Amino acid sequence: MGVENIRVLIVEDDALYAEQLRLDLEEMDFLVIDVVDNAKSAIHLVKISRPEIILMDINLNGEMDGITAAHQIFTLDPTPIIFITSLSDKETFDRAKKVHPFAYLIKPANKISLRHSIELAIENFNEKSLAQKLTLEQFPFLKKNLLIKEGNKLVKLTIENIHLIEVEEKYCSIYGENRKFVVRISLKDILEKLENDKFLRIHRNYVVNIDKIIAIDLEKNVVQTELKDLPLGRKYRSEIINSKGYIS
User: Fold this and answer.
1) Which of 9, 19, 108, 127 has its CA 20 to 30 A from that of 150?
2) Can you list the positions of beta strands (E) in the chain?
3) Whether the model pTM is above 0.70
């Protein structure tokens, strides 16, 4: 991927190391939008400058350290964060893991490792729907909706309007009322976001909205939905027959 003009915020209390980071990044064609030495300034810059990635030290000037700052930043505006620190102890690393950084580099980070870490962080962040990182506690409306990342937009899809989900290797195709979304997410992860009593697994590759089922042909092992006919797997046929809603 190209790195030209990727907007980077450096949060580092060691002025000499911060300057070296800035020079290294600019030499690699990243765009350093600012260098700050404390969490308060970093949070303010995220609000007004919207960096695409943050390089964060853990020991910072002021009362808040980099781990706490990372948590607040992610709640404010989900942004990939890479920790660059001299702290290699397990206790600090375990704390850092809880805020889900995209990398944890020990100083001094060499230029190749730094570049590769930034590129991977940007790519992995962009491949995932931001909805995967939002919690129901923070955003209650996600109990009834999904937010699907499409380019630079988040498209809302009402869960009750989902007809079916089709699994193809590492991707899921989500069929709504008028369109299909293809997202890189496991079926397990997406099912955790849906109401279990509304969606039925009928095949290893298919999940359907119960309200969209017209009929189930037990002779041909086919589930007829409002959108299209789908195969009924043997394992899931037994579960349907043994369910409370089955009347023979």
Assistant:
1) 9
2) 7-11, 31-36, 53-56, 81-85, 103-106, 145-150, 153-158, 164-168, 171-175, 180-184, 199-203, 206-209, 213-217, 222-225, 229-231
3) no
